[in-house]
Amino acid sequence: MTFVWAFLIGGGICVIGQLLMDLTKLTPAHVMVILVCAGAVLDGLGLYEPLIKFAGAGATVPITSFGNALVHGAMAEAKTHGIVGLITGIFEVTSAGISAAIVFSFFAALVFRAKG
């Protein structure tokens, strides 16, 4: 049943993003920002962590989890380091994912040739 809920919740988040692109004049970049901000707001309200516990990867894989990670890291570091923790917490939690994306993109650029 865990896989079913992950599929439904993750798919639901993706459906929301797709509907925003199809039914409005928003660009994909605008939709991405809306979803990241939605994840941040939900985490700030304390609603995203229960969603992760319920849906697992269905809530951690979509882009909304990036907003969740930003707020979660900032709040955790702010508790221990004060105002400085708001800034350092954002970088501490998300740096591994961003660094991996940069490194793997670099290797992909070495292996594959761009058409242009």
Automatic annotation (TrEMBL):
<keyword id="KW-1133">Transmembrane helix</keyword>
<keyword id="KW-0472">Membrane</keyword>
<feature type="transmembrane region" description="Helical">
    <location>
        <begin position="83"/>
        <end position="112"/>
    </location>
</feature>
<feature type="transmembrane region" description="Helical">
    <location>
        <begin position="54"/>
        <end position="71"/>
    </location>
</feature>
<dbReference type="InterPro" id="IPR005562">
    <property type="entry name" value="SpoVA"/>
</dbReference>
<dbReference type="InterPro" id="IPR014204">
    <property type="entry name" value="Spore_V_AE"/>
</dbReference>
<dbReference type="Pfam" id="PF03862">
    <property type="entry name" value="SpoVAC_SpoVAEB"/>
</dbReference>
<feature type="transmembrane region" description="Helical">
    <location>
        <begin position="6"/>
        <end position="24"/>
    </location>
</feature>
<keyword id="KW-0812">Transmembrane</keyword>
<feature type="transmembrane region" description="Helical">
    <location>
        <begin position="31"/>
        <end position="48"/>
    </location>
</feature>
<protein>
    <submittedName>
        <fullName>Stage V sporulation protein AE</fullName>
    </submittedName>
</protein>
